[in-house]
Structures are given as C-alpha cells and as structure tokens.
Amino acid sequence: MKQRVFSLAIGLMLAVGAAAADEATLTLAKKSNCLTCHGIDNKIVGPGWKDVAKKYSGDTAAPAKLATKIKAGGKGAWGEIPMPPNPALKDDDVKALVKYILELK
Asked: Most buried residue among 21, 31, 60, 66 by CB atoms closer than 10 A?
C-alpha cells in the first residue's frame, strides 16, 4: 500500500512539474511573439504547432531542424510566407520551445 501511495505521489509531482514547465514555455512563446504567427491548434500566418508536431513525428533530426528554423528563419517548408529569424533567443529557450512543440498531440 505504501508503495502504491508513493508511486501515485511521484506521478502527481511529475504531472504538476510538467504543467509548470508547459506554462513557462507558453509564457516564453508569448513573450517571444511566437503565438502572433502560430496557433497551437490552428494556422495563423504560419502553421499550427500541432501540425508541426505531426509533420515531424518520428523524425530524429526534427529538433535540430526546428531549432535552426527558429533561430535563422526560413521559407518554403509551409509555403512562401517567410518565417522571420529569432537570433536573440537563447539556445536553451529555443530547445524548450522545440521540445514543447514536438510533444504536442
């Protein structure tokens, strides 16, 4: 019984920690103006993040590709409207955004 309660407590702490991390990443996305052009569930100017997650699902090179796209900008993967570069974003922030996007379902 103690093991079961302990496992439940650990699971709850992990879930709360994940929710806090998600909230922090969304705050970062808002502060960095990502959500001006990208919806989570829908296209705005650029693709919705869930569509990005679906497109790159199973692609082991996706984190590096997306990090480069965020930092350097780009055009052509989702149409002709260019994504502006975000060179001022810290690498750790870019990694957090990419991780969040790719984990969306």
From this structure: 66
Q: Which residues pair with 30 in a beta bridge?
A: none
- Does residue 38 sit in helix, strand or coil? strand
Paired tokens of 105: 């379902």
Q: Identify whether the C-beta of residue 83 lies closer than 8 Å to the C-beta of residue 74.
A: yes
The one-letter amino acid code at 51 reads D
pTM, entire model: 0.79
- CA-nearest of 47, 52, 34 to 93 is 34
Domain range 2-102, CATH architecture: Orthogonal Bundle (1.10)
Tens of pLDDT, residues 23-35:
999 999 999 999 9
SS3 of residue 49 by DSSP: helix
CA–CA separation, 94 and 99 (whole Å) = 9
